[in-house]
Amino acid sequence: MALAEVYLTNDVYMACLQLALSTEKEEVICLLLGETKEDKEKKTVYIYSMKIPHRLDKKKDRVEISIDQLLATRDYAEKLSQKLKKEVTVIGWFHSHPHITVWPSHVDVNTQANYQTMSGSFVGIISSVFSEDKTTKECEVNLTCFQSENITDDSGSVRYVRKPIPFFVISNPVPVTTISCLKTICDLPNILHQEEEDNYRECAAENSDVLCSLHNEMLLTKSLLHITNKISIPLLKTLELRERILKQQLIYLKKFDGKLRSAFGGCQEESSNSKH
User: What sequence ranges are listed for the domain MPN (predicted)?
Assistant: First the structure.
């Protein structure tokens, strides 16, 4: 049965956007976790969580991860399954297209086809970021969800093409995964930091020249400062703002709860007096 729809929780949606907007010079990637539900009428994918892997290759128009990262995410999905008491698997992948169209390239379509050999429900989601609307001159963010399907052209050769899949953003039906998404995003600076450290050590091993070493150290420092200024500090401010909002909501709910208890207690007292 072909996949009909994809439902993405609002927590995963916001986390994916946060990841996509973390850099405009390179593509970023994450793996999506969820479950497949199938009945007589249709097959549906629900995405509850995500995992950001270390990138094997990171460029403006390409991003790759190693098989080890995929296996590690599968282990993470198994732990999440035990916690949620439902079968959670690696069900999709998300990556960004900075400054380019949201539509998948032929490389994306072929990569998606490879993923679908693991599961026919596997989906790809792309976010186009840092693009400017030609009419309004405003920055816009576009998303698309797709799978790959093979077709035979006029010459008789078989090739893969994009198959659009309808997707919807919904409120999180599994509140425990909200914490999971939050922890994933909070760990983003550490992941980027580790990637820069690994890149620095790789360059240092290839060239021991003193001037090259100083240059590489300068680039590492610059990259780490960029991560701090553009990701860590804004993320901290966002979390602090969210904390203040939640505290205000808690105060309001406690007051509202007190009013309800007072009103309910008064009604009970009047009812008791009327019986006497």
Answer: 6-146
Task: For residue 166, give the nearest of 187, 191, 143, 135 by alpha carbon.
Answer: 143
Binned average pLDDT, 10 residues per bin, the chain of 276 residues: 91 91 89 91 92 82 83 91 89 94 93 92 94 80 94 82 95 77 87 88 84 89 90 88 91 91 70 58
| Final residue of a structural domain among 141, 166, 186 | 186
What is the distance between the alpha carbons of residues 274 and 276, in angstroms, rounded to a whole number?
5
The answer to whether position 261 is within a domain reads: yes
Domain match, 57 and 111 both: yes
Length of the chain: 276
Give the pairing of strands 89-98 and 123-132: parallel
Contact (Cβ atoms closer than 8 angstroms) between residue 235 and residue 185 = yes
- Mean predicted lDDT score pLDDT of the chain: 87
Asked if residue 92 belongs to a domain, the reply is: yes
* In a shared domain, residues 59 and 150: yes
Confirm if 150 and 113 have CB atoms less than 8 A apart: yes
How many H-runs (helices) and E-runs (strands) does the chain carry?
7, 10
User: Residue 46 in contact with residue 34, Cβ under 8 Å?
Assistant: yes
The residue written with tokens 């998606």 in the block is 112
- Residue-level pLDDT at 268: 60
Domain of residue 232, residue span: 196-272
Per-residue pLDDT at 125: 97
147 pairs with which residues across the strands? 163
Same domain for 135 and 43? Answer: yes
Those residues with Cβ within 8 angstroms of residue 134's Cβ, 6 or more apart along the chain or in another chain: none
pTM score: 0.81
